[in-house]
Amino acid sequence: MTEKTITSSSVDSFVKTRMPAVGVDLGGTKIRAAAVLDSKLVSEPMQVATPSGPENIVQAIIDLIGNFQKDCVLSGVGIATAGIVNCDTGEIVGSTGNLPGWAGTPLKQMLEAKTMLPTLVDNDANAAAYGEASARELMNTSCISVVTLGTGIGGGLIINGKLFRGAHWGGGEIGHIRISMGNKRLCTCGLFDCWEAYGAGRGLVATARDILSGLSSNQTPLCALGEKLTTYAIVDAARSGDIVAQRAMDSWHEHIAAGLVNLAHILDPDAFIITGGMAECVDFSLLHEMVTDRCLPRVGENLMIHKSNLGGMAGIVGAGQLVLDSLAEKQLPT
Ligand SMILES: [Zn+2]
């Protein structure tokens, strides 16, 4: 048996992992950042508008990091970015419509050269999932599936305490699992009947339009909205007792449940965590009932469905904590 020796460098390393990291969430319209320690924000978040072009974006991130360096010594930088990321190299390998020209940017290399801080880059949905699971102290569970309900549906999977990224860095693209046959709804990805075409915000609007097509404005004021029909209008009308809007909301919950039931039978997760702007519109007790009713008893009876605790901060917390955990792992005494 080899005796483990704690060396002076590992003590230094332990001290370093007690320093906060900066978590950065890079989106199409804004870049937000905050200092993170122990899966929590330890500073006020800062934000700037996302400039155009990769070089300007990288410079804006460097400037944000510089602001935090004025106040504290940092252990590293974690970046949550839209697009597909090779997490080994920290390069953006898949573009996104929100950040034109972003694919091919060697982000980790560029940031480390300028800041001299260890940097980790991941996809924003993965980082948010990591933030949600670590903030709830769920990293010692078998499987946590984090589902982001927004305009579309994204997600991240934590399996045995690690993010599952798939063979081509595309794991967890759960918005595009197929939940219906018959090519009824075209998804933004070009395929038909993806989960997000039904279960995301735009899915709720499409469902409401289907229901409204056979009705007149004396049956519901939603008919008068025409092209101006939004998720908020539907949710508000349902809360005010409009039975047509309530029907659309019930169908929307059925659609969300359909995707969760599929995932539950593949993953048998400890919990789903639902986040994203549309999570605010979910009736969690109704959703839980629908999902557990449609799952095999072994899968459904202990399945938890939580609402996000972190909201819009999940990506920042997750990106910061990812780099802290990666540093701690590398620095364990051997
Ligand atoms: Zn799709």
Describe the structure.
The chain is an alpha/beta fold. The protein folds into 2 domains: 8-131 and 313-330, 2-Layer Sandwich (Nucleotidyltransferase, domain 5); 140-308, ATPase, nucleotide binding domain (Nucleotidyltransferase, domain 5), CATH 3.30.420.40. The protein has 11 helices and 13 strands. It has helices spanning 8-17, 54-69, 107-115, 124-135, 196-199, 201-212, 231-239, 243-267, 284-294, 297-300, 314-330, and strands at 21-26, 30-37, 40-41, 46-49, 76-81, 84-86, 91-94, 119-123, 143-149, 153-159, 162-163, 271-275, 304-307. It is globular. The protein binds zinc ion. The site of zinc ion has 5 residues, from loops. The site of zinc ion (ZN) has 5 residues, from loops.
Overview in brief:
The chain is of the alpha/beta class and 334 residues long. The protein has helices at residues 8-17, 54-69, 107-115, 124-135, 196-199, 201-212, 231-239, 243-267, 284-294, 297-300, 314-330; strands at residues 21-26, 30-37, 40-41, 46-49, 76-81, 84-86, 91-94, 119-123, 143-149, 153-159, 162-163, 271-275, 304-307. It has two domains: 8-131 and 313-330, ATPase, nucleotide binding domain (Nucleotidyltransferase, domain 5); 140-308, Nucleotidyltransferase, domain 5 (2-Layer Sandwich), CATH 3.30.420.40.
Compute the CA-based radius of gyration.
Answer: 22 Å
Largest sheet: 6 strands, mixed
Classify the beta-strand content into a percent band: 15-25%
Structural class: alpha/beta
The CATH superfamily of the largest domain turns out to be: ATPase, nucleotide binding domain
In round numbers, the mean pLDDT is 91
* Shape call: globular
In percent, how helical is the residue content? 25-40%
Per CATH, the class of the largest domain reads Alpha Beta
* Strand element count: 13
- Please indicate the count of domains: 2
Q: Detail the poorly predicted runs.
A: 1-11
The small molecules bound here are: zinc ion
Order of helices and strands: HEEEEHEEEHEHEEEHHHHEHHEH
CATH topology of the largest domain: Nucleotidyltransferase, domain 5
